[in-house]
Amino acid sequence: SAVITGRICNYFDLQGGGFTIDGACASSIDSVYVASLMLQNGDLDIAIAGGVDISIDPTELASFSKIGALTKTQMRPFDSLADGFQ
Question: Is the pTM value of this prediction over 0.70?
Answer without folding.
Answer: no
